[in-house]
Amino acid sequence: MIRVDSLTVNYGELRAVDNVSFTVSEGEIFGLVGPNGAGKTSTVECIEGLRRAYSGTVRVLGLDPWKDRQELYGLVGVQLQDTAYQERVRVFEICELFASLYRRPTPYDELLKMMQLTAKKRDFIANLSGGQRQKLSIVLALIPNPRVLFLDELTTGLDPHARHRMWELLLQLKKRGLTIVLVSHYMDEVEAVCDRVAMMNCGRIVSSGTIGEVVGRFALPTMISFRSPVEHLGSFENLAGITSVQRKHNLITLCGNGDKAVAALLRHLEENEIEYTGLAVKPPDLEAVFLELAGTAPAADSLEGVK
Amino acid sequence: MSPAMIKLTLMEFKLFTRNFINMFFLLVFPSLMLLLFGGIFGNEPEALYGGYGVIDISVPAYAGMVISITGLMSLPLTICEYREKKILKRFQATPLSPVYVIISQISVNLLMTIAGMLLLFLVGRLVFNLRFMGSFLPVAAVFLFSTLSIFSVGFLIAGLAPNMRAATAIANLVYFPMLFLTGATIPMELMPALMQKIAAVLPVTHVVRAMKAIWLGEAAEVLFPSLLVLGGVLLVCSYLSLKLFRWE
Ligand SMILES: Nc1ncnc2c1ncn2[C@@H]1O[C@H](COP(=O)(O)OP(=O)(O)OP(=O)(O)O)[C@@H](O)[C@H]1O
Ligand SMILES: [Mg+2]
User: Fold this and answer.
1) Which of B112, B148, B138 is nearest to B60 (CA)?
2) Which pLDDT does position A299 carry in this prediction?
3) How does pLDDT run across B30-80, given as a tens digit for each residue?
4) Which atom of ligand 1 is nearest to the CA of A43?
5) How many structural domains compose chain B?
6) Which ligand lies nearest the alpha carbon of A36?
7) Which residue of B has its CA nearest to A92?
8) What are the helix (H) ranges across B85-192?
9) Complex ipTM > 0.95
10) Protein residue with least CA distance to atom 1, ligand 1
11) Average pLDDT, stretch A277-299?
12) Domain region containing B179
């Protein structure tokens, strides 16, 4: 469905995307994550045909997004990271315009209803809240009835309820056979909807695969925390599988390797009759991988994406 | 014209009419000035104005005012806004090329310029018994040619300005001198000779001269130098703005 082969994007001297390759298969939700300035938007814009690659090849639905743009644009829906629309246009007017651009548009009333914008149909875009504009942008991306959908920071500015509804919507669209490329900074979002992810940093893909694969590859510790008045932490450090112990007031946090460490800890607490409350076990997740990666990025690079 | 093109142009048309500054300076201000000057001076023939009344020379001169608001303000500011807000880029990702967004902008501004001029003509005619010495087609041709020439200046502003704020500054810096120093508002005949000389470098001055000449049926010697200047402006500015144009 989408094939990206050794894609490189330059802005003058700056190499924003460096030899990136990945594929997205039909009916898949593919997540692209990474710190600010990692090159996600640049990559997606090349796939959308909005930006010319310095080198490498991209194919979407068998088309070259740069050369066959006109044909491609009838088949894809796009939400750009930071488009605003004309302030003095009414919501339904811009929806009607977009509907007139496509051969088989989805009726926009349905989409507005789904995004809870029906009441705002006759309002000027200037009078919409930030989240409502974001929703409108999603409506406009769905009007083409696309086969591939590109969403760059889809739920930025949406309230938690709206975000969960968005995820449901994405999963519904996927069931209908839509292929979706999602750029996101919310790891919970990516974990909730994406089949596979690619994690970018400084223009390169540092890891990709299913979420389990990506997380597994980094061998990050499981975090175990509980509250306890216990004084001496030395005994915890010697437990099998526990690698570090920290305490803040009466909150004790241990890092360990997987379930063995948990079992060892529980046994230790039991045997020594140590009082504890609120035991929580957090296995490594995408967020932990992200923080690990962002932490290792050179500081200058992680600041660049903020315009 | 495809249905999408028509929809787009209609939307841009609505947007134009919802812009208060555009509407005021295009449709209200020129007529207001005409009523003011006419109210004070009437439209009696006077030697100062070559034997015409003040309204007779003001209506063609105000073409400069009408063309300036669309060409030097509305057009460049809208294009800069669309570029800055990435609206052009957003259209690039649809089957409708953003070229058509620009085309519809030009069409809407052109139509509105014509409407502004017609309104002015009607007010002059109905209120002050305006005299018209030229004939329709040549006047229309000079008017359209002038409009295109000033639009090309507007495109150059859009190309030069790095962002919306700069565009607004440049547009104001260009618009107001063009409005008051060129005879487009205050009759040139009332200005000192030095001022008239300085004004000759401003393109709108030549719009005013050309429009007055063709309107009053003056000899070709008055008309052609100005047309030549406007043609030169059109060529140079179109060339430069094509070179400078950016979609984002
Ligand atoms: N139009 C441009 N001109 C010059 N440099 C650019 C341009 N767009 C992006 N860059 C640079 O390219 C790099 C990658 O930017 P990009 O927008 O692809 O990052 P991103 O991963 O989408 O970041 P974010 O999460 O902040 O949206 C950044 O260092 C940025 O400064
Ligand atoms: Mg981005």
Assistant:
1) B138
2) 43
3) 999 999 989 998 888 888 888 889 899 999 999 999 999 999 999 999 999
4) 18
5) 1
6) 1
7) B11
8) 87-92, 98-128, 136-160, 164-180
9) no
10) A11
11) 80
12) 3-244
